[in-house]
Design brief:
Chain D: Keywords: 2Fe-2S, 4Fe-4S, Iron, Iron-sulfur, Metal-binding, Oxidoreductase. Chain D: Pathway: Carbohydrate metabolism; tricarboxylic acid cycle. The complex is a heterotetramer of chains A (121), B (131), C (612) and D (293). Chain B has 131 residues and is mainly α. Chain B has five helices and no strands. Chain B has a domain of 58 residues. In chain B, α2 packs across α4 and α4 runs antiparallel to α5. Chain B is elongated and about 60 Å long. Chain C folds into three domains: 303 residues, FAD/NAD(P)-binding domain (3-Layer(bba) Sandwich), CATH 3.50.50.60; 106 residues, Succinate dehydrogenase/fumarate reductase flavoprotein, catalytic domain (Flavocytochrome C3, Chain A, domain 1, Alpha-Beta Complex); 121 residues, Methane Monooxygenase Hydroxylase, Chain G, domain 1. Chain C is 34% helix and 16% strand. In chain C, α3 crosses α11 and α13 packs parallel to α15. In chain D, β6 and β7 form a beta hairpin. The longest helix of chain D is centred in the C-terminal third of the chain and has 17 residues. Chains C and D meet through α3, α4, α10 and α13 of C and α3 and α5 of D. Bound molecules: flavin-adenine dinucleotide, protoporphyrin IX containing FE, iron/sulfur cluster, FE3-S4 cluster and FE2/S2 (inorganic) cluster (FES). Protoporphyrin IX containing FE (HEM) sits at the interface of chains A and B.
């Protein structure tokens, strides 16, 4: 276990961020669900409504951070789960790379979609 | 040392009946977490229809929402999300060292609450669906 | 063959301390133990460690109490060394991180204990031994001392000159329990036996299953005499089914003993009209057995210890661990019913004869801890005096074996001009090796002197043959049968009550056991983790040890300390201020005596009546 | 069902088994007659009075003995006595029916930690588990997730290695000057704080129960982390050493691996709040790292 004495904390930061994002997600996810399933019935969603909401910078930023937090939380969770199953060495590095790329792509795509929705493109 | 016998991991799954609350909570949390991240990717994909144009977006969403199966899946998603949230809160408490003695009870409470919330929201979710 | 400077056999408190000391003295030391160190029975000790730490207390008081407790059978140089070194060695444990209980000002707590004139029992909760054992094991890990755990030591590699005082020990033979391989270990500077007590010689004991007196038997067969073996301490309150100890605390808090007729017999039958349940251990133990023998025992076996009247609150506050013990090991809820208790073998005051430096009469052979007899406990050990013995004499043995000069010992060992032969007592049977001619290679055979390597090799060969013989035999008796018979005999006849007739009967049964053992066989054909084989060898050791206990009990016709003789109800200081020594002498036990040393550094301990 | 349980394991139940491996395994009544001429000690006649026997099924495996190389379960019927523990039952079975039945045990009072078994699907100390509290037949297996050496004996080396990894010893070098017997001061509160953690008897039950430890061999495991807790929380060691200890714990296979499954806490025979200790260390580690931000 060579990394035993390394001075930075592998896992520690990720662990903390997982909790912090979770706490954040509770609030936003509740808001999101409520807004899009109860206040606005899902079936009645139309582009116009979405655009109206997205134009609000506050809402936009909330959604983007929701996305970023959600992606980090989800992907980091998956990564941890895999590591707990004993993923190690090269495999681990590959998985990490794939996950990071997937998340970045997801976030990029998400932000791009959101900007489109807001009509800022 | 002479040979020894490795019973492998199968036994864990063979023993599921003997799992404790904490283990079930862990399994469920994992399962729901994976569902949620899977959904997040799908969700963004669906929303990407807006890139083609407002019509496409409205139609895609509306089209999907008119399908009974999608509605059922949505209820499922709700259940999954609610459980993940509630148990997530439970885990956050555990991380803060609060109420550790009641960890099994809080897990059962998460399950029950999830069930209640899910059942209660069925009408809203299935409202106006065409079979 | 493995090779080290110092080899410590046993990893209880004494063994670990010895290894650390030898290591600190610069030796290449290894520990060989049949149990992993943390499994050793030292972990069971609850009460505490006596050490004169506080202002107002001093080592001389401790020495005085110990001498009085020993019923003047302790050797003053040993007793004084114990009292002098205990404070420093206890403090060293503290510095190694042992979690002692604390006072408000952050200092270690000390509590009063039976027979002590000052509260000097240092403790760590109700699990002092556990902490002592683990703390020392931690230090062993820290120092990287090599531990061969789950290696069963079978025999010592000792030269076989006629006079044990001329012999020397060069190593051990052990087998790896997990693989069954028998291997030799050469010790360049010394072998330290720290194998613990012989409690399994009795049917009912607070000692662990592993306390089989292996070290006693090995040293005995190698020529070092066993000393004062007849002195066995019985604890009055142990649980009948397992022997788990119920601490004196229950009686201290006001627990009451009842017989099957609901009588508070300590008073009603006049065993101790003043102190009742709080009379000393031996008195209470004898009272309980008398009740049972006279038909007033519950289920003809035990008496009841009742603490219900103390009230739930007080019990939970002070005696909570007792509730758990009764519940877990006896299935009894101490809050709603009385707890069954009976006397159990608890501690052996005697052991391998050693001097203050832990050395036996055989050169290079040391012993420390409960298996040794320095002697500090004499006829009776005070509570809390065994643990300091482990660390004080464990340390000394380790240092001395590693070559440090600890000064000339005042205690003499082995044969010498100060010993006196036993001549009077008639033995009912011939003790010693059964069928010397068909011996399984454990009696020294005289004559051949070889170098150290050769000696170890030869002993390894003998041990291998012995194992093969046991394994190859397909029929005969199993050790469990013999062991049970032996244990029953000891508990029936060499227990708290000893009569001449009874002890003789025991000796006859021991003889039978020996003869039966000639046909013992190991049923389990596997070399892997063969506990059947291990226990079969242990049973042999138990027979040797039990025999010395019974022999000692027969020859000592007086009542001193824990040794009670029906026909001899008084302490005979004119005749018996001497240690009983039994030497194996190539298979024929030889009994002799050595006078007690009562002259201390600057005073002589005059025998007084032992009353509290 | 696990692999070994799927074997036809119950060729017989009440009668003496024909299996040669179980020779000597007669019903207790026969056994009594055989022992008939035992010496004058009362050979527990109350067994018959109680008239009950306990049915135990014990896992058997021996790499060297044909017929035992393929793991199987043996049935034993042991006369019940009040207060009987699982350890008593297997000891009886060994001493009376089959002397090759192998398991570790020593103290019989829950301090040596030798006899943790998997009893009726849970890690328990044999000597601390009352037969009366269990459902019959009682299934007794070696600890899961450890390699089986023979019968109920598992290889503990990995467990010991993990225990040693956390540097379980006081780091301070200086021993007191014999002349002044000064102890290091420690408040009763601090001693109380480490009390529970110091009770560990190294039985390995917790480690065996933990799914994560099963999946990740490098995971320190609850017992080792708890051991580290004992040292990290002890005020007698300075801040610097505490930080060093936290660094060991926050390595990749350290505290973060714990997924708070609580099974370790549930099985610990010494009632050590393991999960709580692990969680506290996670927070300590985070706190320590925040200092650098
Ligand atoms: C229940 C109980 C409570 C007690 N309470 C107290 C108390 O409060 N205060 C006090 O001062 N004393 C107390 N004592 C007494 C004290 O605990 C013991 O005398 C002491 O622990 C013995 O330590 P030891 O190191 O000599 O032997 P042990 O701790 O018994 O160790 C023996 C070692 O030898 C090894 N060994 C044995 N045979 C072999 C072999 N053939 N090959 C290899 N290795 C072998 C074993 O594996 C073990 O490691 C108590 C005793 C008991 C039973
Ligand atoms: C809304 C509130 C949420 C809370 C309170 C929450 C809480 C948590 C917590 C505490 C964990 C860590 C479990 C552990 O390491 O022991 C976790 C894991 C996880 N979460 Fe969430 N989460 C939430 C939302 C989400 C969302 C929206 C997603 C999907 C994008 C998600 C996906 C995951 C995944 C994949 C894991 C890893 C599961 C595993 O261990 O395999 N979570 N969650
Ligand atoms: S923490 Fe508990 S279960 Fe784990 S080894 Fe220690 S005593 Fe056993
Ligand atoms: S069971 Fe394992 S996951 Fe954590 S709480 Fe215990 S170590
Ligand atoms: S036998 Fe020692 S813990 Fe059970």
């Amino acid at each position: 276990m060579a990394e035993r004495y390394s001075s930075f904390a592998p896992g520690g930061t990720a662990w903390l961020l997982q909790r912090v994002t979770a706490a954040f997600l509770v609030v936003v996810l509740a808001f999101h669900f409520f807004l899009l399933h109860f206040v606005n019935h899902a079936a009645e969603i139309e582009f116009a409504g979405t655009q109206a909401r997205m134009e609000n910078v506050g809402y936009f930023l909330t959604m983007v951070s929701f996305l970023v937090a959600g992606t980090f939380h989800g992907v980091n969770g998956v990564y941890n789960a895999l590591i707990n199953q004993g993923l190690d060495g090269t495999q681990k590095k590959v998985v990490l790379a794939v996950l990071v790329i997937a998340s970045l792509a997801l976030i990029a795509q998400g932000i791009y979609v959101a900007t489109t929705m807001a009509g800022w493109t | 040392m002479s040979q020894s016998y490795n019973r492998g991991l199968i036994e864990d799954f063979g023993r599921w009946k003997e799992f404790s609350a904490g283990m079930w909570a862990w399994i469920f949390h994992k399962f729901t977490g994976w569902m949620l991240i899977g959904y997040l990717f799908t969700h963004i994909a669906v929303l990407s229809s807006s890139l083609t144009g407002p019509e496409a977006y409205t139609n895609t969403i509306g089209g999907l929402e008119s399908l009974f199966i999608v509605r059922v899946l949505e209820v499922g998603l709700l259940a999954v999300a609610v459980f993940h949230i509630l148990n997530g809160l439970r885990l956050l408490m555990v991380d803060l060292g609060v109420g550790l003695e009641a960890q099994d009870k809080s897990f059962y409470a998460s399950l029950v609450l999830t069930a209640i919330i899910t059942v209660a929201s069925v009408p809203t979710f299935l409202d106006g669906v065409t079979l | 063959m493995y090779e080290h400077d110092v080899i410590v056999v046993g990893a209880g408190g004494a063994g670990l301390r010895a290894a650390i000391a030898a290591h600190e003295a610069g030796s290449d030391v290894a520990i060989v133990s049949k149990l992993h160190p943390v499994r050793s029975h030292t972990g069971a000790a609850e009460g505490g460690i006596n050490a004169a730490l506080q202002e107002g207390d001093d080592w001389e008081l401790h020495a005085y109490d110990t001498m009085k407790g020993s019923d003047y059978l302790g050797d003053a140089p040993a007793v004084e060394t114990l009292a002098q070194d205990a404070p420093e060695d206890t403090m060293r444990l503290e510095h190694w991180g042992m979690p002692f209980s604390r006072e408000e000002d952050g200092r270690v707590s000390q509590r009063p204990f039976g027979g002590l004139s000052y509260p000097r029992t240092t403790y760590a909760g109700a699990e002092t031994g556990h902490h002592l054992l683990h703390t020392m094991y931690e230090q062993v890990v820290k120092r990287g001392i090599q531990v061969y755990d789950e290696w069963y030591v079978m025999e010592l590699a000792t030269s076989d000159e006629d006079d044990p005082n001329d012999r020397s020990c060069h190593g051990i033979v052990a087998y790896d329990v997990q693989s069954g391989n028998v291997e030799g270990f050469k010790a360049n500077d010394g072998v330290i036996l720290a194998t613990g007590g012989p409690g399994q010689a009795f049917d009912h004991t607070t000692n662990a299953v592993s306390c089989t007196g292996d070290g006693h038997a090995m040293a005995y067969r190698a020529g070092a005499p066993l000393e004062d073996m007849e002195f066995i301490q019985f604890h009055p309150t142990s649980l009948p089914s397992t022997g788990v100890l119920i601490s004196e605390g229950v009686r201290g808090e006001g627990g009451i003993l009842y017989n099957s007729e609901g009588e508070r017999f300590m008073f009603e039958h006049g065993y101790a009209n003043n102190s009742g349940e709080l009379a000393s251990r031996d008195v209470v133990a004898r009272a309980e057995l008398t009740e049972v023998n006279e038909g007033r025992g519950v289920d003809d076996e035990y008496v009841h210890l009742d603490m219900r009247h103390l009230g739930e609150e007080r019990i939970l506050d002070r005696l909570e661990n007792i509730l758990h013990l009764a519940e877990d090991f006896e299935g009894v809820d101490g809050l709603v019913e009385p707890m069954p208790v009976k006397p159990g073998q608890h501690y052996a005051m005697g052991g391998i004869e050693v001097d203050e430096n832990g050395q036996t009469c055989v050169d290079g052979l040391y012993a420390a801890g409960e298996c040794a007899c320095v002697s500090v406990h004499g006829g009776n050990r005070l509570g809390g005096n065994a643990l300091p013995e482990l660390i004080v004499f464990g340390k000394r043995a380790g240092r001395h074996a590693a070559g440090e000069d600890l000064g000339e010992p005042q205690i003499r060992t082995g044969y010498g001009d100060d010993v006196e032969d036993e001549t009077e007592t008639e033995l009912p049977v011939q003790p010693g090796e059964a069928g010397l001619e068909t011996s399984d290679g454990v009696a020294a055979d005289g004559g051949v002197t070889t170098d150290a390597d050769g000696l170890v090799e030869r002993t390894v060969e003998q041990a291998r043959t012995r194992v093969d013989t046991l394994m190859d035999r397909d029929e005969g008796v199993q050790h469990a049968e013999i062991r049970q018979k032996l244990q029953n005999a000891m508990t029936d006849y060499v227990n708290v009550f000893r009569t001449e007739e009874g002890v003789k009967k025991a000796l006859r049964i021991i003889r039978e056991c020996r003869e039966e053992y000639q046909n013992v066989y190991v049923d389990d054909p596997s070399r892997t983790f063969n506990t059947d084989l291990q226990q079969t060898i242990e049973t042999r050791n138990l027979i040797d040890v039990a025999e010395t206990i019974a022999l000692g009990a027969l020859v000592r016709d007086e009542f001193r300390g824990a040794h009670w003789r029906k026909e001899h109800q008084e302490r005979k200081d004119d005749e018996w201020l001497k240690h009983t020594l039994i030497s194996w002498d190539d298979g024929q036990p030889d009994i002799f005596y050595r006078p007690v040393i009562l002259e201390g550094q600057d005073k002589t301990y005059e025998p007084k009546e032992r009353s509290y | 069902m696990s692999t070994q349980q799927q074997q036809p394991e119950e060729p017989q139940s009440q009668e003496a088994p024909e299996d040669p491996e179980m020779r000597g395994a007669e019903s207790p009544v026969d056994e009594k007659e055989k022992q008939g001429g035992d010496i004058d000690q009362q050979t527990t006649p109350e067994d018959e009075l109680e008239g009950e026997t306990v049915h135990i099924k014990v896992f058997r495996y021996d790499p060297e003995v044909e017929g035992k190389q393929e793991p199987r379960f043996d049935d034993f019927h042991v006369p019940f006595e009040k207060g009987m523990t699982v350890l008593d039952a297997v000891m009886y079975a060994r001493d009376t029916y089959d002397s090759s039945l192998t398991f570790r045990h020593s103290c019989r009072q829950a301090v040596c930690g030798s006899d943790a078994f998997f009893v009726n699907g849970k890690q328990r100390l044999g000597c601390k588990t009352q037969i009366a509290d269990l459902e019959q037949p009682i299934r007794i297996e070696p600890l899961p997730h450890q390699e089986v050496v023979k019968d109920l004996v598992v290889d503990m080396d990995h467990f010991y290695d993990q225990m040693h990894t956390v540097e379980p010893y006081f780091q301070d070098e200086d021993t007191p000057n014999p002349a002044d017997l000064e102890e290091q001061r420690q408040s009763p509160e601090n001693r109380e704080k480490i009390k529970m953690s110091s009770r560990c008897i190294w039985c390995g039950a917790c480690m065996s129960s933990c799914n994560i430890a099963a999946g990740d061999n490098d995971y320190l495991g609850p017992a080792a982390i708890n051991k580290a807790y004992k040292f990290a929380m002890d005020d007698r060691e300075g801040e610097e050493i505490k930080e060093h200890r936290l660094r060991i714990l926050e390595q990749e296979h350290g505290v973060w691996r714990c997924q708070t499954q609580f099974s370790c806490t549930e099985v610990c025979p010494k009632d050590i709040p393991l999960t709580e200790h692990i969680q506290e260390l996670k927070r300590e580690a985070v706190k320590k790292n925040l200092k650098f931000w």
